[in-house]
DNA sequence: CCCGATCGTCGATGCGCATCGATGATCCGG
DNA sequence: CCGGATCATCGATGCGCATCGACGATCGGG
């Protein structure tokens, strides 16, 4: 195992001083073309890579973004993977890396990675409505971006999909189809127990739309396939075509409907809240939570803060909810009395 | 934003020298109980955390494990999350962190994180049968553990679930139920295209068992629900009770069977290769790929290498495949002519 | 009661890099 | 043809920590 070359080795190889090598790499001082080339060649020849620790020590930046993730109790593994993926790629585009931190380190985890100078910024996913990490973040030396809108997040950098708008759009759509009762297949008790902030936000939006449209909502908390089946049976008990707002367990719900010979878009109206994977492909009428858009904007915010763009700092930011019509709802009586399925038209949240 | 305290600050606060603080933290030299307490209190009072970069620079260790993950084309997001979860917890238990690296950086990614001294070890997931990273790993200054068994991995640290054994066990089980033809719902073309090493290994095991038991295998590469349906129809075309080895798309397969009113364990025998999530709960007869066991052993290996346990180094290591009988296969004629369902008995791979 | 052996602590040094001030070289306008 | 400005480069310094050698204090055996 040969010792890794240092910038001093490169300097010797190129016949310049170590500081010149440093300036070639950072571009923070003008360097003649000739010197630049010589240094670049030396770097190649030695396959030099700068020592990250030394860089962090001398340069006061780590080129690392810490991401705090709820690994044990993910509401959706696929959704989480999309976030991780987008975060990592965005980081790499700026020559940064991603450090993984588990949510169960809690506030102490934030203090640790910040205190040890392990990162230049922290992203906290799945923040709760009342979250100890919010307060901790205020006192940290590195910027923190929250995915989610905590109740006491005044002045913090928060960013999320507009779950409240999604609740409104979904219920409004079903109301517009003439339904007076909507059954919501909602997050299970286990997810509720986590206190995720998006649940009350979605609920508030849905309830507001329900009041406005004089619709009754029936909430079902579904964790297992059994829960889903029960909820579906419950929805079917009422007379007429049932209306389902499916917020979780989409495959299970479709399965339950299929078992009962209920065809979405004919015998039942289904609008889903999707993570951007499953159901758009299946042509469901749905509102996507747009994980890619959210994560992209999170990283824009992160690098804005790192770069010190003061314009970037503070406040909550929402990615708007929009509905995509698919085959799981009947044509809207008002819109087009007897037209073909009008896929993929979008309707923004109010 | 107050400047972060350094070990020198702690030393001053405690009335000792900086080096004493360092020895208190590392325990590498005897320290009197009195001094230790004074220093510990000073650390608390200042909420001191050591600077990771400085530590890496002076101590030649980073307390970081790099994990290379195939984010874009995960065969299963859930399976991947389990690995990430186990890796992270194992790392934290040893006061290490996890750095995420995307697989599409390829061999260059390994060189980067090793060259920059970003980590003490690298874990590479989903290694291919012929993988450029294998050769690269040999020249690296940090140990690399591969999850998967590449063809040219001689002497490298490889570790994986025994997919070959799984292929054998699954086919043998179905053969033992009297089947002469087995339909395999296998990984889709997209997964094949990645060249993952586990596919040929599983295939080899299945084929060997098929030859031994004089069974004919029909392979179906299923990416979409449509592919699955076609495969199921194909399996049904033959006379008698069909036999299905389901290696991917388990929910889709179950759905397709349900649509066709084929009840697993009665009208069709189903044995699944599961990722440890879905199907055990559903009581399928299955072989689990044991992601938790695999990742645990990976991290044992990683820290063995970091600690310099020479006993740990080199060679491939397989987590054995075992079958768990569930309700998706009929009782075995030879075993018990007319007994109750014999759940949860295990059968090891040969 | 003295001497060698721990034991506990300190000061000095260097890890590899970024950055600052300084210096020599080159340029241009008057 | 000279002086100030610009350009390219160098040397020195310090970031915060781990580690090594040194040294005073304390202890036990003779």
Write the layout of secondary structure elements.
Two copies of one chain form a homodimer.
Chain A: H1 7-14, H2 18-26, H3 33-46, H4 52-59, E1 64-69, H5 77-93, E2 97-102, H6 106-115, E3 121-124, H7 132-138, E4 144-147, E5 157-161, H8 163-176, E6 181-187, H9 189-193, H10 198-213, E7 216-222, H11 225-237, E8 243-246, H12 250-259, E9 269-274, H13 278-282, E10 285-288, H14 291-306, E11 315-319, E12 322-324, E13 346-348
Parallel strand pairs in A: 1-2, 1-3, 3-4, 4-5, 5-11, 6-7, 6-8, 8-9, 9-10
Antiparallel strand pairs in A: 10-12, 12-13
Helix pairs in contact in A: 1-2, 1-3, 5-14, 6-7, 8-10, 11-12
Chain A binds a DNA duplex (30 and 30 nucleotides) through residues 6-8, 16-23, 26, 28-32, 35, 50-51, 53-60, 117.
Keywords (chains A, B): DNA-binding, Transcription, Transcription regulation
Pfam families (chains A, B): LacI, Peripla_BP_3
Protein name (chains A, B): DNA-binding LacI/PurR family transcriptional regulator
Describe the protein in words.
- The structure is a homodimer of 350-residue chains.
- With 350 residues, the first copy, chain A, is an alpha/beta fold.
- Chain A folds into three domains: 7-50, Orthogonal Bundle (434 Repressor (Amino-terminal Domain)); 64-161 and 292-319, Rossmann fold (3-Layer(aba) Sandwich); 163-288 and 323-348, 3-Layer(aba) Sandwich (Rossmann fold).
- In chain A, 43% of the residues lie in helices and 18% in strands.
- Chain A contains 14 helices and 13 strands.
- Chain A has helices at residues 7-14, 18-26, 33-46, 52-59, 77-93, 106-115, 132-138, 163-176, 189-193, 198-213, 225-237, 250-259, 278-282, 291-306; strands spanning 64-69, 97-102, 121-124, 144-147, 157-161, 181-187, 216-222, 243-246, 269-274, 285-288, 315-319, 322-324, 346-348.
- In chain A, the strands form two sheets. A seven-stranded mixed beta sheet of chain A has the order 7-6-8-9-10-12-13, sandwiched between helices. A six-stranded parallel beta sheet of chain A has the order 2-1-3-4-5-11, sandwiched between helices.
- The longest helix of chain A is centred in the N-terminal third of the chain and has 17 residues, at 77-93.
- Chains A and B meet through helix 4, helix 5, strand 2, helix 6 and helix 12 of A and helix 4, helix 5, strand 2, helix 6 and helix 12 of B.
- The structure holds a DNA duplex (30 and 30 nucleotides).
- Chains A, B: This is DNA-binding LacI/PurR family transcriptional regulator.
């Amino acid at each position: 195992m040969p010792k890794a070359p240092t910038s001093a080795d490169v300097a010797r190889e190129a016949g310049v001083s170590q500081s010149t090598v440093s300036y070639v790499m950072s571009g923070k001082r003008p360097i003649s073309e000739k010197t630049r080339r010589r240094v670049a060649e030396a770097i190649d020849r030695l396959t030099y890579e700068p020592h990250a620790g030394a860089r962090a020590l001398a340069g006061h930046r780590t080129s690392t973004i810490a991401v705090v993730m709820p690994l044990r109790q993910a509401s959706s593994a696929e959704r989480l993977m999309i976030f991780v993926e987008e975060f990592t790629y965005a980081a790499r585009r700026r020559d940064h890396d991603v450090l993984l931190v588990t949510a169960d380190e809690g506030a102490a985890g934030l203090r640790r990675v910040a205190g040890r100078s392990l990162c230049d910024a922290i992203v906290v996913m799945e923040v709760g409505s009342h979250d100890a990490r919010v307060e901790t973040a205020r006192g940290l030396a590195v910027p923190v971006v929250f995915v989610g809108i905590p109740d006491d997040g005044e002045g913090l950098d928060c960013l999320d999909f507009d779950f409240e708008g999604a609740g409104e759009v979904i219920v409004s759509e079903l109301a517009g189809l003439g339904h007076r009762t909507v059954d919501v297949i909602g997050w299970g008790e286990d997810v509720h127990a986590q206190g995720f902030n998006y649940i009350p936000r979605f609920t508030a939006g849905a309830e507001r739309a329900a009041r406005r449209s004089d619709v009754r909502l029936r909430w079902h908390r579904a964790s297992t396939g059994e829960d889903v089946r029960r909820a579906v049976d419950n929805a079917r008990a009422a007379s007429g075509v049932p209306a389902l707002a499916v917020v979780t367990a989409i495959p299970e719900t479709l399965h339950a409907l299929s078992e009962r010979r209920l065809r979405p878009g004919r015998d039942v109206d289904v609008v889903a809240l999707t993570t951007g994977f499953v159901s758009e492909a299946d042509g469901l009428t749905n509102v996507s939570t747009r994980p890619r858009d959210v994560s992209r904007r999170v990283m824009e915010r992160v690098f804005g803060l790192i770069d010190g763009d003061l314009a970037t700092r503070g406040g909550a930011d929402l990615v708007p909810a929009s509905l995509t019509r698919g085959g799981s709802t009947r044509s809207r009586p008002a819109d087009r009395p007897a037209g073909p399925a009008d896929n993929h038209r979008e309707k923004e949240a109010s």
